[in-house]
Design a protein that fits this description.
The chain has five helices and nine strands; from the N terminus they run αβββααββββαββα. By secondary structure, it is an alpha+beta fold. It has one domain (29-205). The strands form two sheets. Strands 1-2-3-4-5-6 form a six-stranded antiparallel beta sheet. Strands 7-8-9 form a three-stranded antiparallel beta sheet, with helices on one face.
Length: 205
Amino acid sequence: MWFGIRRISIGSRILSEKIMSEIQSISKRASVVQNENELSIVISSAVDRAKAKNIGIILALWLIGGIVIGVNYFQIEDYNTKVFILIWLAFWAYFSYVIIKSFLWQWSGKELIKIRNGKLIYKRDVNGRGWVLDYELKEISDLRLYGEITPGWIKRIGGDYWNIDCDSIAFDYEGKVIAIGYNLTDAESNRIVKIMKVYMLPQNK
């Protein structure tokens, strides 16, 4: 009898460990893989690509309009008109850059977060490209939901449509506030913070 109970107990533990190593869904955009030594979190930029498609249409129209105006610039003789168009083209070029970044992020962007070997490894990935940042866990403190006091001007004029800032979760690191987590709900942020703290706690004792 006791042997049977022990067998069931061992089998349950093995099954539990197997489940813990599989992908667990936090939401439609966020998933986590965790085991005894490592935590991996993936946060996709969007559930689907509808928003990216809309931005792509706006981008195409914006680029065509700028190119048409740029070509006609050489046919204009009035000096003041030329100066005005040059200033407009400078703004056009900048906003083209902003829209392209937003489009690429919405189309294929994701955040990759790993905690292993005493480090938090973070990457904003777009088509496999992006900077990888390492943070020593012992230097990280006050992992929390991020309450942005003054949002960026792009966010103020365009809401979350153009915004690509990852600022749902924050922690203090060597005197700086580091923000991660793109456009997460409070429920998603709370779950991610709760899971991350389990892997960070032993390093911060």
